[in-house]
Amino acid sequence: MLSRLFAPKVKVSAHCDLPCGVYDPAQARIEAESVKAVQEKMAGNDDAQFQTRAIGIKEQRAELAKHHVSVLWSDYFKPPHFEKYPELHQLVNDTLKALSAAKGSSDPATGQKALDYIAQIDKIFWETKKA
What we know:
- With 131 residues, the protein is mainly α.
- It is built from six helices and no strands.
- Helix 2 (26-43) packs antiparallel against helix 3 (48-76).
- The chain is elongated.
- The termini are far apart.
- It is an enzyme of class 1 (oxidoreductase).
């Protein structure tokens, strides 16, 4: 009798532990834009304290961008997306590697490369949202 009383009335399913459904590559793009902006500011400032702070911020933002890309890959994109966009696995891998390179570099070109990859993910993401 108690089992029927506490039995779920509605069955639900979700792709993650907390089905928020809020995904957007813009989160990764914003963090990667910050990485590139810091890299550009580092080039024009020789102050050691500034450089130390800039490196910390750049590395933190690159990690956040990597996190957001990884969440898209693991939580948002599903087998039908990977079937339709077979380049998606490699694109995510290339993006994560580019963000790692930007994390360890003061060259804004590395930040731009990461942004270019994120733009490709963004394009695929919005195509999947239309479907």
